[in-house]
Amino acid sequence: MTSEPGDFIGGGVPRTYDQSTATFRQVFGPVPPEGIDIELGTVQQEDDWDLEFVPPPGQRLHLGTYQIAVGTPLNQDGGAGLAIQGEGRGCDFVSGSFTITRLKFTPAGDLQAFDATFVQRCDYHPDAPALQGQLRFDKP
Predict the structure, then answer these.
(1) FRET partner for 111 with CA separation of 20 to 30 A, picked from 5, 51, 119, 135?
(2) CB within 8 A of 19, min separation 6: which ones?
């Protein structure tokens, strides 16, 4: 993840996590309303992150780009939702987008693989400092 100066969530600090520095504690997918929620913590337990990607109500996630107009993080008012939260910080309102390039579930419906990029801006300012990142998940 990269965080522009002034970004409330990332605090302007770049972060990289992999299997040697982080653990995936909970992985949900699909979850109501058919979104994906991945929680991770660092080995040293200094950082805790929650990454949620939700399609518009009544839809399932699929490959492609989802635009997030300014709305609540999980935007149940009709649009897609995005909520990247960490170290106890979250947005009241979000604008931005996410793009899913890989999405695979097991026959039982558990998340097996997920690749996405995202741009999140907090509050009512579509030009506010951004938190940008890439997530790649492969179930062992």
Answers:
(1) 119
(2) none
pLDDT tens, 21-37? 788 776 776 554 478 88
CB 4 within 8 A of CB 12: yes
Q: Where are the domains of the chain?
A: 2-138
Q: What share of the chain is helix, strand, coil (3-state, %, to 5)?
A: 0, 55, 45
pTM to 2 decimal places: 0.87
CA–CA gap between residue 134 and residue 48 (Å, rounded): 16
Residues in a beta bridge with 40? 24, 49
Q: Could you tell me which of 1, 94, 12, 2 has the C-alpha nearest to residue 53?
A: 94
Q: Can you give the pLDDT at residue 31?
A: 52
